[in-house]
Specification:
The chain is of the alpha/beta class and 308 residues long. The protein has 10 helices and 13 strands. It has a single domain (4-307), classed as Ribokinase (UDP-N-acetylmuramoyl-L-alanine:D-glutamate ligase, 3-Layer(aba) Sandwich). It is globular, with a radius of gyration of 18 Å.
Length: 308
Amino acid sequence: MSSIVFGEALVEEFPAEQVVGGAPFNVARHLAAFLAPPLVITRIGDDRNGLAVRAEFERFVMPEIGVQVDALEETGRMLVERTQAGQRFTLLPRQAYDFIDPERAAASVAAAHVADAPVVYFGTLAQREECSRLALAAVLGATSAQRFLDLNLRPGQADEPLVTRALTAADVAKVNEAELQALFQWYFQIGPDAPPLAAEEVHAACRALVDRFALDALIVTLGHRGSVYFGADGSLVANRDNPAPPFVIDTAGAGDAFSAIVMLGRERGWPLELTLARANEFAGAICAVPGAVPRDMNFYDKWVARWR
């Protein structure tokens, strides 16, 4: 077992189908497909959707040591509605992943022998209730792993105090452009109506975030334009060599794919520049298939062969 992934596993309910998802669970499945199955710490209900989640553990050959089953609360659900403006997502309150038990979470780290894991991944959605926040704190206290925060902001699910706590706990934070704008507004009062910042001003603000939260690094993803890495040592690595997929079917899950490959690169000791290039390329490839995680496991074969 390699890294640790903490957070929500849920079912996305579309008008015509249900799909197992959740950013942490997407990351975990990608890692498992590259033969680096993580310890997944989550909580599901004793229900049909919980069985669907467990079927994905089986399909990706991941251990269930960190899976908790809640006898009262249901497996997480996200309702997806199609509107004239696009898709609208509704995350239901009080789901099983809101009540991850702290003692059992910490015990699973010891049971899986991953106290010295290279990376522990977490986001913000599973921190909206105190129980799971305490569970995350217990996990972070049980391991010496690098703390990788994928901010993954959802409307109405995270406020400034929660994000501040998450950034303070992190070693590395990954954000997209919209999330970066939210951070600029919260911490520097740079709102969406402010005059556009010059590139140098954006870089200075990103470095200020690194300093403010004592991060080792801040990674900003830019979609088809690549990504930029701001290191605590003043380094800046901009990877713009990001070949666009031949066509885009669905951008959902691209950020999760990027995070998974960054974690994989750290586990396998890849150089930073190579890791970012591979993360960009793999995230782009995910946009060319339906869904956040490929349904055909053969999708991964090309990447395994190329990166062997």
